[in-house]
Amino acid sequence: MAGYTRKDEESATLRSDELKRKKRIKLAIYIAIFAVFQVIVITVFGLVVMRAKSPKLRLSNDIEFQNLKVVNSGQSSPSFDMSFSTQVRVKNSNFGPYKFDNTTAIFTYGGATIGQVVIPKGKAGLKSTKKINVVVNLSSSQLPNTANLGSELTSGTLTLSSTAKMTGKVELMLIMKKKKSANMDCTITMDVNEKKLRSLECK
Q1: CA angle, 19 then 21 then 22, to 5°
Q2: pTM (2 decimals)?
Q3: Which of 64, 93, 101, 140 is 20 to 30 A from 148, comparing alpha carbons?
Q4: How much of the chain, in percent, has pLDDT values that exceed 90?
């Protein structure tokens, strides 16, 4: 009986050791799978979430004229004065807010500045668009040369340009801040007879 007992104990010990070995192997496999999963998650997180993209800065095509005065006395002294309300939109596609500084948008005709508007500093939330209401005042009195203005006003259209460079920082996971700028380059074509926007193209 003692011999059988000893053999039973040895067999039980072997089974126990085998079970422990299998458990250690399973544990090692689980740890390896978890480690690989963590590497994949961190890699995807780094490539997708933590990658800061440049926000987009655009004028809205929702332009409402408050005042538009056009004088076209032949080719001698044509002029215009206008004011309109619109929106400036800051589109942030990042997984973190974009905090931007005060920005000046310049409006030009034929390369000459005819007015500007200040876009106040603010914040565009993660994956969202910040809409900022502004009122723009423009005047041809600042033009050094109005040689081509008369013919354009006679045709009933007025083509302007608007440019701006916005600077700011994208905040990621509350621990990282990356400097990013947003550029605006828009061409605005207005119908001066109907006092409405004809077209707006932004790059």
Answers
A1: 65
A2: 0.76
A3: 64
A4: 56
The predicted structure's pLDDT at residue 1: 47
Contact call for residues 111 and 82 (beta carbons, < 8 A): no
Residue with tokens 């008369």: 150
Higher-pLDDT residue of 6 and 25 is 25
51: Cβ–Cβ under 8 A, 6 or more apart, which residues?
A: none
CA distances in angstroms from 45 to 48, 53, 163, listed in the order given = 5, 14, 34
Q: Has residue 18 got a pLDDT over 90?
A: no
Token readout for 55 is 């926000």
The β-bridge relationship of strands 128-139 and 196-202 is unpaired
Q: What is the pLDDT of residues 38-91, one digit of tens each?
A: 877 766 666 655 678 999 999 999 999 999 998 875 567 889 999 999 999 999
Length reported for the chain: 203
Question: How big is the CA angle at 42 (ends 41 and 47), to the nearest 5 degrees?
Answer: 100
For the chain, what is the total number of helices (H) and then of strands (E)?
Answer: 2, 11
